[in-house]
Specification:
The chain is α+β, with helices and mostly antiparallel strands. The chain has a domain of about 260 residues. The strands form seven sheets. Strands 5-15-16 form a three-stranded antiparallel β-sheet, with no helix packed on it. A three-stranded antiparallel β-sheet has the order 8-12-11, with no helix packed on it. A two-stranded antiparallel ribbon has the order 1-4.
């Protein structure tokens, strides 16, 4: 007769049917011969105890376990055959006993509930509420489980699926957007396809969570994450990683092992300010040691939400090196931006050919500026003239045809009419021309008009016309009557230099004192330290009165707006020694309007100059004057401020990034908590510069989403240094939140009552 079970190692798995535990590998026919003990501990280990004979070791494994192993003991006497450990499982006997006992307990419990219904509350009470919910009162306020149906009480207590008033009960007090029961409080269109973890490949806690907490019908129950009845001091916001893994398929053991890499975090777009950290840290700060910041904190401060880092103002950061770019100290050419400039024309040829354009500055050499072209865009004569002239050089007209010369005359008269309109109509005329040229729809706003006009002084326009076209009124009158004045050269004075004095003005020159700029300096450029030339007495100079010193908006530029009606005169101050006169460069460095030969210029009056910003905004939106965006222009604004094209619209990025509430809504991070934990490198412990990145190239292509970051992606290993279970913790909720947006909570003054609201951040 064959034995019931063979005990030979080759043919008999070690079942031990009379024990509570069996080997976990028995199902694969690889059960260990030693089996688990009565407490479910694996008995795997060495299969023999080698015996030493002299200097040699001999295997002692019995024939029942396979006899002596071929490899023999190791040189140190350790058995060479080790039974791999296993995870013991309960035997059928153990499971049968467990089921029997559980069934008996449930049966007895049901009998007790049926016999004593008034004690149901006490029998199935799951525990005390947290302090946050202590004012709710009775269970029926949240659970719709009547006393006459004990079975539903049991379902609620053990299964968690029976809801009284549904999840709407929670929403009586808690409000999290319009999609409160959707995943993360967001509509399906706002989230990617759900990544539900496959079942059967995780720890048993996750598998149980799948059955109990998995969402159904697109709604996530509040109890899927928040566990109540865990005691008065329980933290309702503490969510176990197992519950997160019910829906999220990416499972990991730690930040260092299995957690997804921070591939592009947090760099979604380039910065708005062209600040190359790599170049500044490695080159500029080394070269300019006196102006270099002491640390990252010299330029960056935490935002109010403690998540983002803000950039300190220009005056406390960039001004140390870049103020010279703004005021033009480092600029080799003109310090101010050309607003209106007289185009140069070959007047001698026009005189020889008998072309009637009246007086024209002989030494004007500028080409027609993009702005002048824009202001004249709706002048039909000008458009026809430009079409006729093409690329003809206006400074060399000797070989020009008769048609070309007539076009030059039309262009000249169009420019004179423009200048006359601006003189007579002020800002209204200037902006009307601008609005028509831009074909703006809608028209420019009042604020935009004021910013674009830049409080241009009316006296400056008068001064410019007196220099450029002293007989303008008479010439335009002749144009209207058909009595065209012949062409003549106007020898207007040019700006002086320390080496040469300006030539005296012609008879029509205006009184220099009457046309001083706001800083008391002559607008004719003859007060920069050159010796004074004896000027001819002015003849037929235009009258200068107080109105001549109003700006284009009618504001008196000479009045003392800050004066007060004091009842008693203030004591006269002690006389101070006369200060040395301010040089032209010192005066001009203050910024503002000035005349430069045959150009009306504006020099930025410091950083964030309103006029410069307004015109650059206009240039970004209109290609006709896009040349103003060149970073080498006065003010050098676009040297640092990026130009971005987003949604088909081009604009200048004037402000650095500001915190956005919905930026990375699922991430929790506090800079303040991590400052004290940074290593010797400070902020560079986490933010490591990417030395090979071509950061400035992104600003040339004007696409903020296509760029190489100044910094390498953050390393998980850096976070994992502290974020372990033993130190700072490694739970999902430390870095990730579930609810998106603001959470509004109604605080009841009585059980389930009250209307006082408190708004706070999402969980």
């Amino acid at each position: 007769m064959e034995p019931v079970q063979k005990f030979d190692y080759r043919s008999s798995p070690y079942h031990r049917p009379n024990q509570d535990w069996v080997c976990g590998r028995s199902a694969q026919g690889q059960a260990c011969s030693r089996g688990p003990d009565e407490r479910g501990r694996c008995g795997a280990g060495p299969e023999c105890r080698p015996r030493q004979d002299g200097e040699r070791w001999h295997c002692t494994r019995s024939e029942l376990r396979g006899g002596r192993c071929e490899t023999g003991p190791l040189p140190d006497g350790t058995c060479a055959c080790i039974t791999p450990p296993c995870r013991p499982r309960r035997s059928v006997k153990a499971w049968r006993r467990l089921v029997t006992r559980s069934t008996l307990a449930v049966t007895v419990g049901l009998l007790l509930l049926g016999l004593v219904p008034e004690r149901v509350d006490h029998v199935v009470n799951p525990g005390k509420l947290t302090l946050a919910h202590a004012a709710i009162g009775e269970c029926a306020q949240c659970h719709d489980t009547p006393h006459d149906e004990p079975s539903r009480w049991l379902a609620a207590a053990f299964g968690g699926k029976t809801k009284a008033h549904g999840e709407q009960t929670c929403l009586t007090c808690h409000e999290v957007g319009t999609e409160s029961l959707a995943a993360h409080g967001l509509a399906g269109d706002d989230l990617p396809e759900p990544s539900v973890a496959p079942r059967g490949d995780g720890p048993w806690t996750v598998e149980v969570a799948h059955h109990v907490f998995a969402p159904a019908a697109g709604e996530v129950e509040c109890t899927s994450c928040h566990v109540e009845h865990a005691g008065q001091r329980a933290n309702l916001r503490a969510v176990s990683n197992d519950r997160c893994q019910v829906c999220h398929s990416v499972r990991f053991a730690s930040l260092e092992n299995g957690h997804p890499a921070f591939d592009a975090y947090p760099y979604q777009r380039r910065t708005r300010i062209n600040f190359d950290h790599t170049a500044h840290i490695g080159k500029h700060f080394v070269k300019e040691k006196d102006a270099a910041p002491d640390s990252c904190g010299s330029c960056h401060i935490p935002a109010a939400n403690d998540r983002a880092m803000l950039v300190r103002p220009f005056a406390t950061t960039c001004a140390g090196c870049h103020s010279a770019d703004v005021d033009g100290e480092k600029l080799a050419g003109a310090k101010g931006r050309a607003i209106i400039e007289v185009p140069g024309i070959d007047v001698a040829t026009l005189i020889d050919r008998g072309i009637a354009i009246g007086g024209w500055p002989e030494f004007a050499e500028a080409r027609i500026s993009p702005l002048a072209d824009l202001l004249l865009a709706h002048d039909a004569d000008y458009r026809d003239a430009r079409a006729q002239l093409g690329e003809l050089d206006l400074l060399d007209l000797e070989s020009a045809s008769a048609e070309d010369l007539e076009a030059v005359a039309a262009l000249a008269w169009s420019f004179k009419r423009l200048i006359d309109e601006i003189e007579r109509g002020g800002a209204v005329a200037l902006l009307a021309r601008l609005d028509a040229g831009l074909e703006s729809e809608p028209a420019l706003t009042q604020d935009a008009q004021r910013a674009l006009a830049g409080r241009l002084p009316a006296n400056l326009i008068k001064s410019a016309i007196a220099r450029w076209f002293p007989d303008l009124d008479a010439e335009l009158a002749g144009l209207e009557s058909g009595n065209l004045p012949a062409a003549k050269a106007v020898r207007a004075p040019v700006a002086s230099s320390p080496d040469t004095a300006p030539a005296p003005a012609p008879a029509a020159e205006a009184d220099a004192e009457g046309f001083d700029d706001l800083f008391g300096g002559g607008l004719f450029g003859d007060d920069d330290g050159a010796p004074e030339a004896e000027a001819a007495p002015p003849a037929a100079a235009p009258a200068v009165d107080e109105e001549a010193f109003d700006d284009l908006f009618g504001n008196d530029l000479l009045s003392d707006s800050g004066a007060t009606d004091a009842t008693e005169p203030e004591p006269e101050p002690e006389p101070e020694p006369a200060a040395a006169p301010m040089s032209v460069e010192e005066r001009m460095r203050l910024g503002g309007w000035y005349l430069d030969d045959f150009v009306l210029r504006y020099r930025p009056a410091g950083h964030a100059d309103t006029f410069s910003r307004a015109w650059l905004d206009l240039a970004a939106a209109h290609p006709s004057i896009e040349s103003w965006l060149d970073k080498d222009n006065p003010g050098a604004c676009t040297k640092c401020h990026g130009i971005s094209v987003e949604n088909g619209v081009q604009h200048v990025d004037w402000q650095a990034r500001t915190p956005v509430d919905d930026h990375q809504p699922f991430t929790i991070f506090s800079h303040m908590k991590h400052f004290s934990m940074a290593g010797d490198d400070g902020c560079r412990t986490c933010h490591v510069p990417a030395s090979g990145a071509d950061y400035e190239a992104a600003f040339e292509q004007r696409d903020p989403m296509q760029f190489e970051s100044n910094f390498a992606p953050m390393s998980r290993e850096t976070c994992a240094t502290c974020h372990t279970d033993e130190q700072a913790g490694a739970d999902c909720v430390l870095c990730h939140r579930y609810h998106v947006g603001n959470l509004t909570v109604t605080l009841p003054t009585a059980p389930m009552a009250g209307a006082a609201k408190d708004s706070g951040g999402g969980e």
